[in-house]
Amino acid sequence: MYQFAPSWSAKPTTFLCAENLFTDDELRRIVEIGNALKMEPAQAFDPIKNSYQIIDYRKCTLAYVNFEVNTKFIYEKIATFINLENEKHFGFDIYGFEENFQYLIYDNLDNHFEWHVDMSSGNTPYRKLTFSLQLSDPSEYEGGELQLMLHKDPFTLPQKLGAIALFPSYTLHRVTHITKGIRRSLVGWVTGKAFR
Questions:
Q1: Would you say 94 and 129 are in contact if contact means Cβ atoms under 8 Å apart?
Q2: What pLDDT does residue 93 have?
Q3: Phi/psi of residue 85, each to 5°?
Q4: By the 8 A CB rule, do 101 and 152 touch?
């Protein structure tokens, strides 16, 4: 687990994006770390069965990026970024990362993740903020857009290599069907006490 201090004041926003959090070399290292891990079919929470299952509305593969010596730089940079931006923009009572990051690959025409929220399900901790770090250059794939439903129409987040998006975990979002190439990303959740 990686813990950081809570924040107290904020100017509310619905989401934010940043670039250049990681250098090109660091982005390559993250992909190398992810590619060396054992990939498995992604699961999603099934409220009927009250457990995580392989479900048609989420099709991709993933590997868990544990907090270790060689991944410490990833956790520390993202934690610093999120803690600062939470203090400025969200003002949530946050604790840290209680779940390992997920390295995701979307690489065939069936791969997508339908509209969903990342709020806690089953035995997961209270997720408050979701981040998604782009690990593929947009020239390497088509489709696979990360979209938020902020109003009546989907909003597509930047796809630039190294772009990181941050938004409340209760935000409705999806990844559209990949139509060509391979999309890689790193996602995770900041947790805290229940909203009140």
A1: yes
A2: 92
A3: -70, -35
A4: no
Architecture of domain 2-38+58-191: Sandwich (2.60)
User: Which token pair is 193?
Assistant: 């006490």
* CA-atom Rg of the chain in angstroms: 16
Asked whether the beta carbons of 101 and 24 are under 8 A apart, the reply is no
Contact yes or no for 50/123 (Cβ under 8 A): no
Q: Are 55 and 46 in contact (CB under 8 A)?
A: yes
Closest listed residue to residue 72, CA positions, set 29, 127, 133, 105:
29
Check if the beta carbon of residue 6 is closer than 8 Å to that of residue 156.
no
The kind and range of the H/E element at 81 are helix 72-85
Which tens digits make up the pLDDT trace of 59-82?
A: 999 999 999 999 999 999 999 999
C-alpha distances in Å from residue 6, one per residue of 1, 48, 87, 110, 155: 15, 35, 8, 40, 29
Residue with tokens 């989401």: 15
Mean pLDDT, the chain, whole residue set: 91
